[in-house]
Amino acid sequence: MNPVFNQNININFPNDILLTIKREDLIHPFVSGNKFRKLKYNLLQAKAENKTTLLTFGGAFSNHIAAVAYAGKEQGFKTIGIIRGDELLDKIEENPTLKFAQENGMQFEFVSREEYRLKSETSYIEKLKEKFGDFYLVPEGGTNELAVKGCEEILTDEDSVFNYVCCAVGTGGTISGLINSSLQNQKILGFPALKGDFLTDEIRIFAKKDNWNLISDYHFGGYGKINLELIEFINAFFEENKVPLDPIYTGKMVFGVIDLISKNYFPAHSKILLIHTGGLQGIDGMNIKLKQKKLPILKTND
Prior knowledge:
By secondary structure, the protein is α/β, with parallel strands linked by helices. The protein contains 11 helices and 10 strands. The chain has helices at 33-48, 63-75, 96-103, 113-116, 122-132, 145-151, 173-181, 199-206, 228-241, 250-262, 283-292, and strands spanning 6-8, 18-22, 53-58, 78-84, 106-111, 136-137, 164-169, 187-192, 212-214, 271-275. The strands form 2 sheets. A 6-stranded mixed β-sheet has the order 1-2-10-7-8-9. A 4-stranded parallel β-sheet has the order 5-4-3-6. α3 links the parallel β4 (78-84) and β5. α1 crosses α6 (145-151) and α6 (145-151) packs across α7 (173-181). The longest helix has 16 residues, at 33-48. The model has no long low-confidence stretch (mean pLDDT 94). InterPro entries: ACCD_DCysDesulf, TrpB-like_PALP, TrpB-like_PALP_sf. Its cofactor is pyridoxal 5'-phosphate. It comes from Flavobacterium ginsenosidimutans. This is Pyridoxal-phosphate dependent enzyme.
């Protein structure tokens, strides 16, 4: 585990607003950000239960799939990934995420989108056990009580100076951990990467406080959707701050926060902490799609 640090963003905002980003993306070279946090206690639990196999779910460019594959290998587990989209079966070599996971020992089961929707049903899990034998189940995106426990360790004592803590939201585990470990005078703002209002109920399962709010205006059309405005923002942010942002989660959140600052959403003298949840491994795959669409690619280094 590498040291995580808070980096000030060198933009002169009006009303004496200070913006800082917590570099959780640097926590581990391959299991970055919230994936490291979510897997920490789940892997300890799998060992406590004497499990030798981890099984989980994810899509074509899933940060979670890549992280489970590497962490599993590192910790001595066999890993199985149930992958959404049976059309991906013969496209592993051209998919950087799946190629990485396979190189780290993950066995794949490609399923149709219809079958994938059964991922939370007990009867479906039992069928998977009949096929693969006993395993420790890590949910899609990694969110469960143990994941939230790991994410409660993101905020530290030095973060008590911030009025607002902002993060991207996928399955709700990271923001739930932030809410639980936040101070009562702090406001936690979540920026969903997906369309729809179902996340509020998911977060309420784990969150123990009410000092949070979801801002659903910055998903750019839905999960995995990206346009020229977002690409140019992410590249400009990298040029100015030397902080690479992923386009699925953190990039949209940072865009949203800076847009809200320009619209005077935050009171004067606010100190805002952005949580960089990692996810940079997915950029290679996104850049392949961007080239196909004749769009600029995302920059992650000089």
